[in-house]
Structures are given as structure tokens and as C-alpha cells.
């Protein structure tokens, strides 16, 4: 893509030409991407070490940590992963999408660095408070549990920094448009990033609304009001992840198999549905709370009649369908699933993308919608089914997509070869496999009523004995093995990323069509379309009748729908067997 | 990524050229339509279950004051106490009555003795921080928020010796917070644990 090169700010010396994509890369903008990505990976390291300690404690036969440290490490795991790892990475994505993807410049590098410093300082403060034992309140810090005021201050500083970056992102877009770095509408990937940024504004404002009064400890922050507004931060921040992840799905599809946009209108409308409805999902956490009535719960938990679920089901079709069509247009694969069989499975960017879509959809999505149903939540709330669900969305979905993206950022942005290439190629399989076992068995344990956030389900110090079904011990052991596998794969990923970035072999010239260790196939064999791609596209659209241009994907989404229907109604059946409550 | 001579077909990394508001293929429309219909089913199930189903988190909900709730629980205990277990009062209220359960770090009080098949209005609240009411092994869960009285109409449909696990983190002793509910069968007999266990 060649954008008109405008006169305007940013001296030519500030740019480099990307040899792979032909884009003009603004170096100050690229430095911001690098810094945020690196800090994000450091947070992942802390979170992954914490994860290992936690699974070794919940594995009842090992029961590693003492009670106090279990809750402390659990607090650190939540903050490091859900907030620091993910949001720093999203900041990198915002800088990347608003500069590199648009051939544009970073409009306010100094402000961006100040924001970065605020976020990093806030994160350090929070980590210091947690590890110092001053904030044993878990991720949610429900009042009237109380942490050291500096803990809340750290989160506020972090959130202010993040809000500034979102502001810079919008400014970058305006400047790029004014300097005519791109023509027409924003690319779909950037449009997805805009969606994430808008949801981020909603999220961070709610964060300020609840953490500022809590920091000042304005007495009588009502516990129910706290839960309501806190979850407008806690859950909505996961919706930033969803939007960012879907944007990266479109990007990785394009980079690895030349995925095309099936229909801009449908994909963009789906993003708009996210903006309009997805933030209502904070209700998912309040379904069995005393503060709200059923009408409120039903309307909110369903994102106003499941409009955000509709959006995800649309992306769940259009992303793989775009990949299928991208393959078919380049003549790769025949029959219903040849495009999948002949896909670049050894490219960690591609395998991460596929696992991210599949586990997010089949495990995270189906369980999430089901347990977010008002009544079904009665047999789910605060059991292990809940973290079983969100580890499938936010870890197997979002983190997996971020990892896949990193395998491309290393050569494209850091201009290094990916280290430990042999391991890197199998890392997505290890991570996704481990997470799949972990989330399924965690969910399974939860359906026996095993509580989440609980140090000792043998209840050895409790006044009354509680004896879980003996199967639970086995289920938790398998869960722990899955979790350990995934955590080791995550640590391996950290090692790959850190080694590549700081000690990696610089990326030399790439000869197109020649395999090169340490470089994903999407870069050595860019999935370019033929000059007559439009004609082929017309033919594929016209030739298959009702099955359309992506018949394989159509079959897959109906399998997904069948699984969804089955899981949903099985849960109603299980619910109908418990005590009568109303 | 697409070659410059073919501007129409493009990836998500490129700006669409010209007007991109175009009709979708009918396969895509079909999926959107089916997904929409399924969303309506998902939605309809909730109001439907309020009408026809036996398990809803509706209840009688009102604000309360921890001190007042504690006093009401003490009156309730004094009125219907039939014994103690490990120093904790066992309370047997008549079917149909309002019953009270208070969560506090790190215990549930009192022990309830209920009758299978009888309906009670179970008022739950917390005297200090958030707690989680998790009935074991039935697996029924509710959030217990200080300052709020959650009055749930409950009919035990199975008899036995049940536990209430706290499943909301409430402090360092969280994992020791276990209460007890005894449900006698319709003939008034207390069942041994083994017969009730699922």
C-alpha cells in the first residue's frame, strides 16, 4: 500500500521503510511500541511464576503455599496478568496501529513517554504493595476489605497513564488523516483498535469513579455500589481485550495466510455492536447479588438481548472465512478443508491465531454466555467454573493472540530473528494444549461446587467437615498438570521474547520464498494475492450457491452452534435439579 | 499487502477502496440471521424461567443495617433454638417461616434444621465484609453483601446434612468458614450423611 507522502511534521530521518510490508515506520512511534511490549512481557513473567505457585497450591496433594501467601500470590497473579501484562500490550497495539499500520507518525511522543512512566510507576507501586503484604485483598479488593492507600494510588496512576495513551491514539489518527497518510476509511484492523480504545475510555473512567473514592477511603463506599462500578472496570477491561484480540485476528490472518475482508460492512457493524453493548457485561458478576432486581439483571447480563454475543458470533465466522478465502484466492487447498490442511501450521503466528479463535469460541465463549445467564449463574457463581471460563477467554484467547502477534513483532518491529526457533514453533501447541486441559478441568471441578479463590478445600481447619466427591482430587490434579504445562510454555515464550529482543540475531536481508530459521513463514513467504484476485473473488462468490465463498467455515460454525446449544440446555437441565429457590 | 492493481479485494491491514457498504453474500447473511435467532432464544430463556422455572435469584431484597440484622438473627435463634453443635446453636423454625442466616469472619450462624419439601424465606446478610453462600453439595451460590438483606424463598427438595461454604474471599481465615444446614425428610427423620451424598 502506498500512501501519499505529505509535507508535514516528522523529518524523513525519523522514518524507515519496512522491507517486508513496504510501510513507512516512524521510529519514535516504534520505540514506544517496543517499550510497552517489553514491560508487558515482564509482567507476564511475574504472572506466570505466580501461576505456577497457585496451581501447585490448588493441587491438593501438593498444597505448596501457606494460606497467607496463597491469597497474596493470587492478588499478584490477577493484577500482573489481567491488568499489567494485557494493558501494556494493548498500549503497544494502540501505538502500532495508529502509526505503523497507517504509515503515520506518533503525534505526541513526549506525552506518550510521560504516560508510559505513569503506568510503569503505578504498576511498580501496586506490585510493591502486594508483595510487601500490604494489599491482601485479591484482584477485586471488595470494600470493606482494605488495602494500603498506595495500592489504590498505584492503580489510579496506571489508569491515568493508560487513558493518556488512548488520547494519544485518537490524536495520532487525526494527525494521520490530516497529513493524508492513508486514503479512504481506516483499515479494519485499525478500526478494531479504535473499538478497543473507545471501550478503554468507558472502562478507565469507571475505574477512576471507584478507585478514587476508595483511595481517599471516603467512608461508606457502599459494598454493593463498589461491586457494580468496580465490575464496570473489571469486566469492561476484558472487553478491551476482546476487541483488541479480534483486531489482531484480522491482522494475523492477513499476515499468515493473506486473509481478506469478506465484507467490510458486516465486520465493522460487529465492532459497533461491541461499542454499544459490551460494557453492560459487568452484570455477569452481580447475577446473584442482593442489590439489583431481575429485570436489571436480565437486560444487562444479556448485553441488551445478546447483541455483543451476536458480534462475536459474526467475527467468529468472518475471521476464519476471510482466512479460508485468502487461501482459496491464492490457490492453496481444495475441497472443504484443504485450505486448513495446507495452512502454515509451523508458523507460530498462524497456530496461535487458530488456537486463539478455537479455544476462545468453543470454550470461553460458550461457557461465558451460559454461565452469564441469570438463573444458571446460581450453580456457577464463585465456583471454579468462573475462572475456568475466563482463562479460556483471556488466556487462551487474548494472551494467545498477543503471543502470536509477538512472533511477528520481533522481526517486523524489533528487526531480530525469533530465538529458540525450534521451541517457538511448538510453543503455541504446548500453551494452547495446557490451557485447554486446565480450563476444561477447572470448569469440571467447579461443577462439583469447588470454590474459586480458596486455599484449602480439604477444610482441615474448619469446624464442620466437607468432603468433596473423591473424583475432585483427580480433577484438580489434572487441572494442575494442564496449568503447569501452560505456565511453562508461557515462561518459554518470555524467554524467547526477551532473548530475541535483547540478544537476538539482527534480521538481515530476506530472500522471498526461502525458509529462514527464526523468521515466520508469513514473512519469508508473504501470502500475496495474484493480480487477477478480484476476478477470482467474484468467481468464488458466485460459484458455490448458498455455501458461499467459504464453505468450510460455514460447516465449522454450525458445529460450533450445535456445541453451544447442547452446553446451554444441559446447564438448564442441571439447574432444574437443585433446590427450589425464588 | 494486496497488489496495487487489484484494489477491491483487500486484507484487514489495508484501507478499503471506494464505497465499502456493499451487500454481503447470502451465506454470510444466513449465519448472521441464525446467530441473531439464537441470541433471541438465549434471551427468552431468562424471562421464561421466571415464569415456569423453579430456580430464580429474585428474592426479597432490601437494605439493612449489620447491627439490626444481627439482632434479628439473635431473636430468631432464641425463638427456635433446639440444641447446639460445637457451641453453635441449632435452630428449627416452622415451615413457612422467615429464617435468618448471618455470615461473619469466619463463621455462619446459626445451624439451620429444615424440613424437606417445606418452603422458607431465607434471609442472608453479612455483618462485616462480602461473603459467598455456597450450599454443599447441592451447589447453590449467592453473594452475601453487608448492608443488604437477600430474602430467598427456598424449598429444600433433598434431605441430609449440608454445608455452607464461604466462596467469596473474606480474609485470611476464609477457608475455615463453613456452616451447617440439616434437612430432615418428610417424616421428620435426620438422614445419615451417606444417604444424602450425591
What number of structural domains do the residues of chain B give? 2
β-strand percent of chain A reads: under 5%
Give the largest chain-chain interface (CB within 8 Å): A-B, 128 and 101 residues
Radius of gyration of chain B: 26 Å
Strand order of the largest sheet of chain A: 1-2
Count of folded domains of chain A: 1
Element pattern of chain B in H and E? HEHEEEEEEEEEEEH
SSE series of chain A: EEHHHHHHHHHHHHHHHHHHE
Shape of chain B: elongated
CATH superfamily of chain A: Cytochrome c oxidase-like, subunit I domain
The third-level CATH topology of the largest domain in chain B is Immunoglobulin-like
Radius of gyration of chain A: 24 Å
How would you describe this structure to a colleague?
- Chain A contains 18 helices and three strands.
- By secondary structure, chain A is mostly helical.
- Chain A has a single domain (26-457, 466-508, 516-529, 543-576), classed as Up-down Bundle (Cytochrome C Oxidase, Chain A), CATH 1.20.210.
- In chain A, a hairpin with a 6-residue loop joins strand 1 (15-17) and strand 2 (24-26).
- Chain B has 198 residues and is α+β, with helices and mostly antiparallel strands.
- Chain B folds into two domains: 1-56, no CATH class; 60-196, Cupredoxins -  blue copper proteins (Immunoglobulin-like), CATH 2.60.40.
- A seven-stranded mixed beta sheet of chain B has the order 2-3-6-12-11-8-9.
- In chain B, a hairpin with a 3-residue loop joins strand 8 (131-136) and strand 9.
- The interface between A and B is large, with 128 and 101 residues.
Q: Which key features would you list for this structure?
A:
heterodimer, A: 582 residues, mainly alpha, Cytochrome C Oxidase, Chain A, two-stranded antiparallel ribbon, 18 helices, 1% strand, globular, disordered N terminus, B: 198 residues, alpha+beta, Immunoglobulin-like, 2 domains, seven-stranded mixed sheet, five-stranded mixed sheet, 3 helices, 34% strand, elongated, disordered C terminus
